[in-house]
């Protein structure tokens, strides 16, 4: 299990008692899944937990049972799961439940479904389960939402900002990508969505990486100092050997004779250590 799949599993396992918060969660999950239209509402996911949550919410809130399928995994390709509602009247029923008009030209987030911070947090949790992903924090910090609908992307960005994060928006292969790269913003958003365990794990990984990097910097600094000492000591030893060959050690003043002998006997010490 990767960090990303563990995160989605944790989000799916959270229980919600209030019907209005369940509806907000479902709204984010349905709206940002593969299709959300008057003729087709569907999801495609690699997580069986997301699929189960999608179907349970569709049944409990609206009374519709989607058709479920799964792909056969191939080498290098993960198993995917899909749930589809294709009956036109059933799709219209979902639209009416979330206050969408059948003749809407562009998909957008309807404010009456997310009119409180609690609803916004549940909605963003659903949206993340549908179209979100996160990198392994051991390698780097990156969380993103992907949607082909520009209006939906901008509306979602405004809601995320209400929770205290500031996502950036870019385009990639015809999709609008909302992303966060600052670890603090990602931690705060995970906590707001209810993924407290994953947020704490990310913090622990960040602390470990910072300690490791600090230790590496100290080691590199010490290694560089040792290399400087060795290079200097080698040059000094060569000079001393040259003096011995040409004039003899007695050529040097008595105090320099003493330190020259110490240098030859202790090539790994610095001048300060030799002096001591």
Topology:
Layout: H1 3-13, H2 19-31, E1 35-36, E2 41-45, H3 48-62, E3 67-70, E4 81-85, H4 88-97, H5 117-131, E5 132-134, E6 143-147, H6 150-162, E7 168-172, E8 175-180, H7 183-193, H8 196-246, H9 254-265, H10 271-275
Antiparallel strand pairs: 1-2, 2-4, 3-4, 5-6, 6-8, 7-8
Helix pairs in contact: 2-3, 2-5, 5-6, 7-8
Give the uncertain stretches in residue-range form. none
Distance from first to last alpha carbon: 57 Å
> Looking across the biggest beta sheet, what order are the strands in?
1-2-4-3
Radius of gyration: 32 Å
Query: Could you tell me the mean pLDDT?
Result: 90
Beta-strand proportion: 5-15%
Task: Tell me about this structure.
The chain is an alpha+beta fold and 276 residues long. The chain contains 10 helices and 8 strands. A 4-stranded antiparallel sheet has the order 1-2-4-3. A 4-stranded antiparallel sheet has the order 5-6-8-7. Helix 2 (19-31) runs parallel beside helix 5 and helix 5 (117-131) crosses helix 6 (150-162). The radius of gyration is 32 Å and the shape is rod-shaped. The two termini are 57 Å apart. The mean pLDDT is 90.
Question: Which short descriptors sum up this protein?
Answer:
276 residues; alpha+beta; four-stranded antiparallel sheet; 10 helices; 8 strands
Q: In summary, what is this structure?
A:
It contains 10 helices and 8 strands.
């Amino acid at each position: 299990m990767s960090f990303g799949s563990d995160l989605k599993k944790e989000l799916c396992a959270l229980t919600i008692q209030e019907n209005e918060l369940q509806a907000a969660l479902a709204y984010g999950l349905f709206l940002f899944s593969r299709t959300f239209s008057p003729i087709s509402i569907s999801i495609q996911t690699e997580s069986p937990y997301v699929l189960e949550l999608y179907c349970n919410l569709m049944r409990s809130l609206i009374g519709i049972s989607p058709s479920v399928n799964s792909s056969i995994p191939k080498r290098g390709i993960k198993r995917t799961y899909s749930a589809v509602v294709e009956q036109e009247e059933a799709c219209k029923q979902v639209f009416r439940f979330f206050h969408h008009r059948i003749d809407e030209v562009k998909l957008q987030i309807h404010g009456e479904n997310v009119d409180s911070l609690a609803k916004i947090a549940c909605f963003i949790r659903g949206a993340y389960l549908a179209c979100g992903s996160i990198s392994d924090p051991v390698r780097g910090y990156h969380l993103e939402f992907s949607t082909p609908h520009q209006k939906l992307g901008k509306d979602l960005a405004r809601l995320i900002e209400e929770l205290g994060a500031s996502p950036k928006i870019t385009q990639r292969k015809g999709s609008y990508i909302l992303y966060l790269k600052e670890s603090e913003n990602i931690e705060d958003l995970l906590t707001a969505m209810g993924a407290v365990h994953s947020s704490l794990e990310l913090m622990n990984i960040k602390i470990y990486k910072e300690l490791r990097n600090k230790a590496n910097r100290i080691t590199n600094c010490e290694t560089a100092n040792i290399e400087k000492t060795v290079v200097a000591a080698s040059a000094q030893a060569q000079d001393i050997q040259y003096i011995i060959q040409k004039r003899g050690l007695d050529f040097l003043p008595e105090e320099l004779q003493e330190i020259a002998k110490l240098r030859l006997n202790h090539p790994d010490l610095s001048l300060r250590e030799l002096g001591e």
